[in-house]
């Protein structure tokens, strides 16, 4: 179907950047110590000796494909944008006029085929993505512990001893800097607290990145590692609209709430973080599920909070308290009443707080409930 039209001639037109390929030929020779004569210009003179067509040939196919795939927009014959890639023949073909724009294209994909996820994982030879959660971002080399060579035969004892020493020094060298040593303590702690709080991976990664920024900006000086770790976590959660209260974090981490709060303020100020105020409705789903309330109650609570925000009943009050009161009222409105104590326990606030917020909401929003 595709009629071939002088693909070779097209190629020479398409690649104007073929000249510099001859550059790497020039080798900076070993310093000629006895010759004080200036020999630098001589290097430059000898470069152009490479024949131009062979240099173009030398240009790697991969490079050309990448270049093409980025630049091909139009067929040079008919001007069509409809260029397709023929996988079997390795050709770029104009779908309109049939001009072959590029042939013998190297397939830059993997040389294996996979039919399911397991095979794909088993055959991929690339490593895991970079993780801020891991010391050295997970980009580490490991010398394994098996004392075996590639065929599985045991190594002679002399070699084993050598490997032992290599392992030891490798371990020491890979955590050479003080900040890496710091991460070695901080990041597992971050992971631990995040696990207890049920935080997903992306939040952990973000918190780890924030912590790394704290270290880089010298904000950990004079503060315990755990404090800064938990402050980063708190900031990240709040920023992601998945707030955890200082109380919750303090309880899980064992670091006093006051300390975390203070570190958080320092971090936010020094790194110029713009962390939004906590939206009380972001607590609602958690309270609702902990109290085993229905979706109706959740919906109602969110509506109440929206109205409350409009009337300015939220600012200056703890978001957890307002949220808990809204859930408390919403539960009663949909006929799933929970006691003040139950709600207070789930939200980590006092019954007095709930009572006060409840009165405010009831009065200002004209809610017809009697609890
Ligand atoms: Zn065309």
Primary descriptors:
371 residues, mainly alpha, disordered N terminus, single chain, binds zinc ion
Would you mind describing this structure in some detail?
By secondary structure, this protein is mainly alpha-helical. It is built from 16 helices and three strands. Strands 1-2-3 form a three-stranded antiparallel β-sheet. A hairpin with a 4-residue loop joins strand 1 (83-86) and strand 2 (91-94). Helix 13 crosses helix 14 and helix 14 (319-333) packs antiparallel against helix 15. The longest helix has 19 residues, at 178-196. It starts with 6 loop residues before the first helix and ends in a 6-residue tail after the last helix. 23% of the residues are buried. Residues 1-67 have low confidence and may be disordered. The chain binds zinc ion. Zinc ion (ZN) binds next to loops.
Write the layout of secondary structure elements.
Layout: H1 7-14, H2 40-46, H3 52-58, H4 61-71, E1 83-86, E2 91-94, E3 100-102, H5 117-123, H6 157-174, H7 178-196, H8 201-216, H9 225-239, H10 246-253, H11 257-270, H12 284-290, H13 295-310, H14 319-333, H15 340-347, H16 351-365
Antiparallel strand pairs: 1-2, 2-3
Helix pairs in contact: 7-8, 7-9, 8-9, 9-11, 10-11, 13-14, 14-15, 14-16, 15-16
Bound molecules: zinc ion.
Strand percentage lies at under 5%
Helix residue percentage: 40-55%
- What class, by secondary structure content? mainly alpha
The number of distinct β-strands equals 3
Low-confidence stretches: 1-67
Mean pLDDT rating = 79
Based on CA atoms alone, the radius of gyration comes out at 33 Å
Helix/strand order: HHHHEEEHHHHHHHHHHHH
- Arrangement of strands in the largest sheet: 1-2-3
First CA to last CA: what distance? 80 Å
Number of helices: 16
Q: Name every ligand kind in the structure.
A: zinc ion
The profile of the biggest β sheet is: 3 strands, antiparallel
Sum up the overall morphology in one term: extended
């Amino acid at each position: 179907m595709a009629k071939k039209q002088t693909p070779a001639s097209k190629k020479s037109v398409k690649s104007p950047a073929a000249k510099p390929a001859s550059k790497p030929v020039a080798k900076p020779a070993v310093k000629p110590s006895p010759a004080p004569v200036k020999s630098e210009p001589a290097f430059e003179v000898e470069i152009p000796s490479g024949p131009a067509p062979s240099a173009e040939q030398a240009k790697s196919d991969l490079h050309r494909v990448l270049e093409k795939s980025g630049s091909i927009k139009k067929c040079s014959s008919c001007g069509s944008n409809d260029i397709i890639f023929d996988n079997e023949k390795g050709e770029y073909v104009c779908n309109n006029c049939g001009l072959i724009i590029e042939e013998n294209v190297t397939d830059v994909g993997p040389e294996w085929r996979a039919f399911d996820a397991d095979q794909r994982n088993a055959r991929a030879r690339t490593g895991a993505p970079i993780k801020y959660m891991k010391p050295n971002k997970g980009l580490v080399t490991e010398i394994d512990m098996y004392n075996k060579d590639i065929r599985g035969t045991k190594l002679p004892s002399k070699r084993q001893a050598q490997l032992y020493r290599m392992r030891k020094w490798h371990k020491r060298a890979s955590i050479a800097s003080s900040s890496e040593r710091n991460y070695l303590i901080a990041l597992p702690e971050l992971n631990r607290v995040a696990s207890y709080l049920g935080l997903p991976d992306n939040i952990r990664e973000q918190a780890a990145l924030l912590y790394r920024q704290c270290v880089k900006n010298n904000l950990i000086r004079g503060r315990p590692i755990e404090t800064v770790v938990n402050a980063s976590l708190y900031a990240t959660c709040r920023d992601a609209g998945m707030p955890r209260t200082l109380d919750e974090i303090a309880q899980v981490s064992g670091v006093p709430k006051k300390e975390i709060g203070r570190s958080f303020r320092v971090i936010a100020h020094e790194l110029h973080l713009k962390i939004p105020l906590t939206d009380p409705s972001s607590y609602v789903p958690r309270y609702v599920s902990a109290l085993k309330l229905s979706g109706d109650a959740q919906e109602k609570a969110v509506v109440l909070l929206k109205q409350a925000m409009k009337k300015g009943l939220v600012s200056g009050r703890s978001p957890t308290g307002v949220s808990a009161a809204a859930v408390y009222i919403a539960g009663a409105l949909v006929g799933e009443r929970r006691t003040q104590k139950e709600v207070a326990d789930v939200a980590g606030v006092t019954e007095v707080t709930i009572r006060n917020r409840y009165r405010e909401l009831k009065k200002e929003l004209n809610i017809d409930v009697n609890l």
